[in-house]
Amino acid sequence: MRNAGVVKRDGLTLLESMVALVILGLVVTGFLEVFQGSTRLATDAETWANGVVYAEEGMQTVKLGELPAHQGLPGGFERSVQTQAWRDGLQLVTVSVTLPNGGQVLLNRLVEQR
User: Fold this and answer.
1) What's CA 52's distance to the chain center, in Å?
2) By three-state DSSP, how is residue 34 classified?
């Protein structure tokens, strides 16, 4: 007598398919969270880099002999420049750039007085 009680099945059951889909969903969700975090970090780095560029630009303006007033800049940035006498022929220049998210870039340099 051959194995009369054995039933041969090919394929997956509904339960196995559901478990596979849940596992796949968890893996995809993990990858999407990593990509979202990477995008946020890249955006934050770009914002800080723009703030540093605006601060350097303000410092160069002071070195050329102009004192820029408090000004709003594109993208929601704000820049202010302060100077104070330091020693013979030098002044301390502080350029402050406020970022749109509330951060702040401060740049301090000693510059020859003009």
Assistant:
1) 13
2) helix
DSSP string, 36-82: HHHHHHHHHHHHHHHHHHHHHHHHHHHHTT--PPSEEEGGGEEEEEE
What are 79-85's contacts with CB under 8 Å, separation 24+? 79/54, 79/55, 83/111, 85/113
Query: Do the Cβ atoms of 78 and 97 come closer than 8 Å?
Result: yes
| pTM for this model (two decimals) | 0.69
Q: What is the pLDDT of residues 68-93, one digit of tens each?
A: 778 888 999 999 999 888 888 899 99
Note whether 97 and 105 are within 8 A (CB): yes
